[in-house]
Amino acid sequence: MKPRIITRKQLSELLDRLAQEVCLYAPVRDRTGTSWAKISRADEVCLEAVNTVEPAKGFVFPRCEVLLRFDPQGNPVEPEPPPEQVVFGIRPCDARGIAFLVKFYTQEGRTDPYVKARRQKTTLIGVACSRTAPTCFCLGVGGSPQGSEGLDLLLVDLGDELLAEPVTDKGEKLVADLPAAGEKHLTAAAEQKKKVEAEISLRIDTGRLRELLPGLYESGVWQALALTCVNCGACTFLCPTCHCFDVTDETIRGRTVRCRVWDSCQFTLYSRHASGHNPRLDPASRYRNRIMDKFYYTVEQAGMVSCVGCGRCIISCPAGIDIRQTVRKVQDAK
Amino acid sequence: MDRSEKLRQRARELLEKKEVVMVIGFGPPSDSGISPVLFATTPEEAENLTASTSCAQNLANYLLKVRDRGRVAVVARGCDARSITVLLQENQLKRENLHILGIGCEGVIENGRKSTACAVCRHPNPTIYDELIGEPVPAPEPDPEILKADQEFEQLSPDERWERLSAELDRCIRCYACRQVCPNCYCPVCFVDASMPQLLGRTHNLSDNMVYHIIRALHMAGRCVECGACHRACPVGIDLMRFNRRVAKTVRERFGCDAGTDLNQAPALTGFKPDDPQEFIQ
Ligand code: SF4
Ligand code: SF4
Ligand code: SF4
Ligand code: SF4
Q: Measuring from atom 1 of ligand 2, which residue has the nearest CA?
């Protein structure tokens, strides 16, 4: 698929049109930074922050997914299928997060129909990062500020114009009528990539982690690391790849629904058995689980480290814990 | 010698002389701008202790985690000390197991601004300590904007207040970070985690969010020291301090009790006084 060129004006027109036709979501400015919101006009978009406070995972894996409704007689009714939606302004790390979720949830033999259906109905338009935050480390975990994995279309801001690289047919359809990018556009994008990537200095060797972690299960390092953690779960709720859920029956506005809601391995309730026994009651074992999951379990299960380096857990941690430092300390542990 | 250096020196001494097994304080800020909590068990580890405006957590919370380890020293600003007092009053800590390194506080700076709790702080100096590191600091001039907004909120009708509360709490994602960072939220099983039978729904709908926050507010009445840890921890920026300040003010006005400022005065809701105002029960 050929990279194209789109002017700012054309992009605004495209977004205005999409807002008319489908549900269009984009980052908008709010009190704490930028958050995802449904927009009706291009000029509501705010791409100033490096990343949104909350990840984009909710577009394929909502915080509360209604699985079944019950009619007044108690008969189950299938929920409405998800609506057609376009997400604009997603950063490459977040897009990789969605790629991970889709990979994890649509594996051979255990495909989750809800995530699958939502991804099919969603078009993801990414915007490459032209600057980074000190908490960004996508490059250290296999991503890039200009990465396109998980996206349908990637835009690279070149000033008056943007380079538009279609990744899937869905993306191609959006830009098919635009002129092809020239040599100078491609060079400008490549230069930007080099410049922005150079801003991210921190690397972590995730391959080594995969080898190290199983042997460190009983290590005292977790006790030491977890002392600072208060098991609040903010890091897991804000992580673009954390994917655990609980299923619950509730009455919402007088109607009974069965839904699944996000859960977190940091909560005690998460691992409590029906018998009352809790194999992961110790805070350190919960902290360990999160790190093992990111760098070992999901690598075994889905072939991918499930940290995309967005840095949200670092920003949101009330205790000032930095996952990069955790990784370093784990690597140094005996 | 600046405060941080003095603090390090005392921490080293305490550890060297084995007067304590651990010193709890803060380390240098990480990339997020927040100082992680530092648990120094050797004089060398104490070298990294820092006293600065990037120390966002209430350290009393960590005392509960290490209360079985023996005598520990803890760095305590005004609000840490008040929380420690509440925990002592509630028999959660043993005074003889604590060495409190009191320190005057200049407030927490968050995203370049003084944190909302610190901007109206009434007790920057520790109310209880074994030794004071450096000089006491003057209480800051309260931020007029915050006071004004509080007053406006107070003057709304109950319906309008409810609406405000609803709009704010509708955004809560129920991650419970606010509960986890609070030293005075320490029930072994929180009512929101009671699952046999389940007391509270787990979806993020407004009525359940409300129940969580209202019950938490009631549990914290007379015990909340207004440190703002919950407010800073909230990943979606819910203005929890607006409500906490309101509750604390009511308790001060009705019961003459300012949480954690007087070890000998029981928290408002745990005591009984024949002259308690109870005009709402007729
Ligand atoms: S956000 Fe920080 S304190 Fe909370 S669970 Fe995660 S690592 Fe622990
Ligand atoms: S673990 Fe942290 S840095 Fe990695 S993807 Fe999750 S939130 Fe982002
Ligand atoms: S981690 Fe990388 S892709 Fe994500 S916001 Fe930062 S620079 Fe962009
Ligand atoms: S920290 Fe914020 S989002 Fe999380 S439960 Fe508390 S108020 Fe809700």
A: A307
